[in-house]
Amino acid sequence: MNVVVRNQAEALAAAGHTVEILTRRSSPEIARKVQLHPRVTLRFLDAGPAAPAPKGDHEDFIDAFRQRMSALGPYDIIHSHHWFSGMAALPLARERMTPHVQSFHSIAAEESTPLSEGERPESGGRMAGEAWLARESDAIVAISEAEADTVVRRLGGVRECIQVVQPGVDGTLFRPTKHPVRPGLGYVLVAARLQPLKGLDLAIEAIAAVPESIRPELIIAGDASTDFDGYVDELRALAARHGIEHDVRFVGPQNRAKLAVLFREARAVLIPSHSETYGLVALEAAASGVPVVAAASGGLREAVVHGTTGVVIESRDPLVWARYISQLLSDHEFAQHLSVAARERAEHLDWPRSAQKLLEVYRRLVLPGSAGCRHELAIA
Asked: pTM for this one?
């Protein structure tokens, strides 16, 4: 979400628009205002303690965030990128008669449903809040057709009010390596939050099932989720049970530059998530010229073109995954075909294109006579 927000904002600014990004101040050391670009301002609002807080506690800060936000503006459009911010912003947008756009980036599912249905609600009001935002916002921007379908089915959104704006990728930062693949087994990469939804157990079991003679190292890059204490220990124990504890390396969260290097040097990128609204990692891997092996979940079917830019697997059987990974490692011609096609596709999916699609949504809301999806909306 942060990558999408910042890159779309900077692309909008490059097109001549002024953007303010509002988020909660989580440390007294953070300045209240940071200039990211001459036309992009990042503001940290005092809502709740100036300290990190569990995600589930953020619901208690919504009213305070709205109060701080009310001192800012005016804005032509208010676009919320999380249900917390939407709950804060939509009532304010109504008061000001300003169009409100909502993006979710992930949508909660009942605790009793399979992980393939989506994220678990971190706080009590999430599911009702997301449904309210889907019904009442002037437009919904989804990151994929899969997410748009979920907004309709699960949240009761109106399909005509939902616009799909796919993300872009920085093809200069994420680029193929200029060097031939180094001799040896190399590594495959998983880049994700460390939580059960991301299916990291499948990645470990799949690598364990790859024949030892061609088995690569598995590098897992990402931050441990505070909502799942002990999950990393569980993954380490799983690797040990399969006898590959020395072949699995956790490198923690990486900045964008370091992550780009990890991508371009990888033999493949694995995305075993149970649910993804799109899978930006798949697009970054494609720009890096690296084949993707992805689960057939949600927007990953749109982010990866099966047999062209990567492989999309319907099964969650580690042996099936191991066969595809082994094919990529042993069939250089097949891997090279995927690599070239992936980069070619990514070159047509940049951030200026994504921002232009977003602008089309905004313009429809601010044009005279437009009322978005709520017919009572008035544009001053």
From this structure: 0.89
